[in-house]
Automatic annotation (TrEMBL):
Coiled-coil boundaries: none
Domain ABC transporter, residue spans: 32-267
One Pfam family linked to the record: ABC_tran
GO molecular function, one term: ATP hydrolysis activity
Protein name in the entry: ABC transporter, ATP-binding protein
Keywords associated with the record: ATP-binding, Nucleotide-binding, Transport
Length: 276
């Protein structure tokens, strides 16, 4: 059963395109450039001429109201969706180009899904060690050491043997993050990490992500409609509205933006408390 779960299913949250041996020590942040990206679902024009640059090593949030295309954009970055036109470059290499110019990309990325997407039949430790065991990246003793270390990084020391069904929502999110960290990703993506979390757990999660950035060099991209969370943890923020990027800036610049759409979003999400 464990073998069945391990194979195939984990590909959606871990990825390495190249078939070179994995060197877990060798991590870096990757730069992402989105150029003129368009996506239609039938008549629904969901992404409209998206141009965006995310710098290597930064924590970048994509904010905006529900249904504006944030998750669809994130899915393009990890190739879970294909654009109708446009391209995404990671470290200047196109990720959708086919044929002669296509090169195997040598970077690792992982995604933390809104639902956490843990395997309930496995323990916390087995969830965290899934990719390492599937790829046979290192010996079992080292896998156990990495599991311990990653759980420590997210504040779950000694929880290896717990069943994921025994965990609270906030703990599940932490396990999902530890699982993503197990591969030492160059790029880590979060889809609505604070959804379903109470304010205290949200705050803890924000501090965990900030702390992780002190010990990793990766690029972090987060989709959220939680403005305060984004302002707290981001180096820069992009605001999406109606399938377009309407503003990009540092938290300070976003708070001071004169753009009426940004101001409206700040006003509604802070119930009228002005962002100074
Ligand atoms: N696979 C799909 N097929 C058809 N339409 C889709 C698909 N995925 C997303 N959409 C549509 O694309 C639009 C943008 O969805 P998306 O999930 O990106 O919104 P979002 O900004 O992330 O909002 P939320 O925070 O509510 O998830 C929505 O109208 C949605 O219904």
């Amino acid at each position: 059963m464990f073998e069945k779960i391990k194979h195939g299913l984990s590909a959606s949250f871990f990825h390495q395109d190249s078939h070179r041996p994995v060197n877990l020590e060798d991590t870096r942040g990757v730069g992402i450039r989105v150029e003129q990206l368009n996506k239609f679902f039938g008549p629904n024009h969901v992404l409209k001429d998206i141009d965006l640059e995310i710098y290597a090593g930064e924590t970048f949030c994509i904010i905006g109201p529900s249904g504006t295309g944030k998750s669809v954009l994130l899915k393009h970055i990890v190739k879970l969706e294909t654009p109708d036109s446009g391209e995404i470059f990671i470290d200047d290499m196109p990720i959708f180009a086919q044929g002669q110019g296509a090169v195997a990309r040598d970077y690792r990325y992982s995604m933390v899904f809104q639902s956490s997407a843990l395997f309930n039949s496995l323990t916390v430790g087995e969830n965290v060690g899934l990719w390492l065991r599937e790829k046979r990246v290192c010996k079992e003793a080292q896998v156990r050491e990495i599991i311990k270390q990653k759980l420590e990084m997210v504040g779950l020391v000694g929880k290896e043997e717990l069943r994921t069904s025994e965990l609270s929502g906030g703990m599940k999110k932490r396990v999902a993050i530890a699982r993503s960290l197990a591969m030492n990703p160059d790029l880590i993506l979060y889809d609505e990490p604070t959804a379903e979390l109470d304010p205290v757990t949200t705050d803890e999660l924000a501090n965990t992500i900030i702390k992780l950035k002190e010990s990793t060099r990766n690029t972090t991209v987060i989709v959220t409609h939680d403005l305060n969370f984004a302002l707290y943890i981001s180096d820069r923020i992009a605001m999406m509205h109606g399938g377009s990027i309407v503003e990009v800036g540092t938290p300070r610049e976003i708070k001071r933006s004169e753009n009426p759409i940004v101001r409206g979003f700040i006003y509604t999400t802070t119930k009228g408390i002005r962002g100074e």
